[in-house]
Amino acid sequence: MQQPGQKLRHCRFTNTFIERLTPLPELLETLDLQKKPVLWIRLVAFGYLCVDYVGSGGKDLGFQRRSYPVADFLEATRDRDVLDQLKDYEEGCRLLTEVTL
After folding, report:
1. How far is CA 48 from CA 17, 79, 81, 91, 95, in A?
2. Please, are residues 90 and 71 in contact by the beta-carbon 8 Å criterion?
3. What does the pLDDT read at residue 35?
4. Percent of the chain clearing pLDDT 70 (strictly above)
């Protein structure tokens, strides 16, 4: 068992990391945007955060901010509730980038 503060070997980290991601590929393979719009909203928001972080945190490494069409991604659900609140979801994604840890 890993003790707090103990260094983790790269191979063990990699194996542990991959084990925790195992459900993700299966989930994405079977993802139906019309049946799971809430999951899709979360994935779109996470993608938005990643794009923002790479654009700001990777600036010194030569990465550039990229366009991320939140509305287009969310519209793909064709879910009436999502479409009715599209502007709110877009704003929610933008606000996520302003949260400090």
Report:
1. 22, 20, 20, 11, 11
2. yes
3. 92
4. 86
Full-model pTM: 0.73
**Are 32 and 15 in contact, with CB atoms under 8 Å apart?**
no
Q: What are the residue ranges in the chain where pLDDT is below 50?
A: none
Residue identified by tokens 């794009």 is 51
How far apart CA 88 and CA 91 sit, in angstroms, is: 5
* C-alpha count within 13 angstroms, C-beta hemisphere, residue 4: 0
CB distance 82 to 36 below 8 Å: no
CA distance to 10, 53, 68, 95, per residue, from 24 (Å):
22, 21, 22, 26
pLDDT digits (tens, 9 = 90+) for 62-81: 888 889 999 999 999 999 99
Residue with tokens 């049946």: 35
